[in-house]
């Protein structure tokens, strides 16, 4: 029975958000920073976790309207992103955990407009690539279960706080292919697009909540959410904004094969970046927006290990207007149809 409850708790404590194509939602995890079943960690226990995520972004939206002509005209921007998030959790008590998270990403972005330009005559405008790779902004967080998880196995809620440190390179540069007035190519080295920058140069503070509840035999509810406050307004090296972030998930797990500790899950997922920050200014360049996804998954757990594979599929993609000194201004951004996420956690 305890293994089944660990499986159900798995979804409650797992949540991370990464860049969604052109919407630069950077790596962030709720309280424990990992998909543990950390509800059942004893004082003195450790847990290591690793999350892998891949997405292919290419569909452009203004608001919720897809700009289908971009793909038809081959002027779409394509982002391919491989991201990892490594976490280490220590249980100070049965209810209080602290976690450090280190994100690592490998990003490739190809476009026309950033190089020769979308207006170059058809057939003479090759697609060029810019890239970034390395460590992102690290996080330290703590979470506290409101009820003793060793006795309240039917359900629990944890609250958490976190700090994000500006450890990622916030001014990654690469070569862009340009044409001079004589149509001769040269390479201009400058900052890559904000969607593949490794960091945002600012410290951040997060508030977080997560929980789970047994609905009926074999079925459980999970939920979690976070909001990251970014008081710093501007990365002056790039003139990019240092934005807030948010994310939330809610859904159900069902023990499909209880004796084998295999469960399936289905839920909804929201992640995004607001146009206006809750604290501090909102100047600089940013692409605000949000993504709502349906998130099916499959979970396996043992006494010490947990594995989750999920494939969130986008049902709403909204590139909301950007705040400027003269008011809100519409813009476009590219999104993925879906992404692949796989997370493994081990306690010792």
UniProtKB/TrEMBL annotation:
Q: Which domain of life is it from?
A: Bacteria
Q: Which UniProt keywords apply?
A: Signal
Q: Where is the signal peptide?
A: 1-19
Query: Is Signal one of the keywords UniProt gives this record?
Result: yes
Can you name this protein? Answer: Transporter
Annotated organism of origin: Emticicia aquatica
């Amino acid at each position: 029975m305890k293994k089944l409850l660990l499986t159900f708790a798995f979804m409650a404590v797992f949540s991370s958000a990464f860049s969604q194509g052109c919407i630069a939602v950077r790596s962030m995890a709720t309280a424990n920073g990992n998909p543990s079943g950390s509800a059942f960690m004893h004082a003195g226990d450790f847990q290591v976790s690793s999350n892998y995520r891949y997405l292919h972004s290419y569909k452009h939206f203004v608001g919720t309207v897809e700009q289908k002509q971009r793909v038809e005209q081959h002027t779409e921007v394509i982002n391919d992103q491989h991201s990892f998030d490594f976490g280490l959790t220590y249980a100070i008590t049965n209810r209080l955990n602290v976690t450090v998270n280190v994100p690592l990403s490998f990003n490739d972005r190809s476009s026309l407009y950033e190089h020769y330009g979308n207006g170059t005559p058809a057939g003479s405008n090759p697609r060029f690539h810019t890239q970034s790779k390395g460590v992102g902004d690290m996080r330290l967080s703590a979470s506290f279960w409101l009820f003793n998880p060793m006795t309240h196995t039917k359900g629990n809620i944890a609250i958490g706080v976190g700090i994000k440190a500006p450890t990622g390179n916030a001014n990654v540069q690469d070569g862009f292919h340009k044409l001079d007035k004589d149509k001769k190519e040269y390479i201009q080295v400058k900052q890559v697009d904000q969607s593949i920058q490794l960091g945002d140069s600012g410290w951040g503070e997060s508030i977080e909540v997560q929980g789970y509840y047994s609905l009926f035999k074999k079925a459980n509810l999970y939920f979690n959410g976070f909001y990251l406050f970014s008081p710093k307004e501007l990365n002056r090296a790039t003139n990019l904004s240092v934005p807030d972030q948010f994310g939330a998930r809610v859904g159900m797990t069902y023990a499909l094969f209880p004796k084998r500790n295999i469960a399936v899950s289905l839920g909804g997922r929201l992640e995004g970046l607001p146009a206006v920050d809750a604290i501090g200014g909102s100047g600089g360049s940013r692409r605000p927006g949000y993504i709502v996804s349906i998130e099916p998954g499959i979970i396996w757990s043992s006494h010490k290990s947990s594995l989750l594979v999920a494939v969130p599929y986008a049902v709403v993609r909204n590139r909301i207007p950007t705040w400027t000194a003269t008011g809100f201004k519409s813009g476009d951004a590219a999104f993925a149809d879906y992404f692949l996420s796989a997370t493994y956690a081990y306690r010792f």
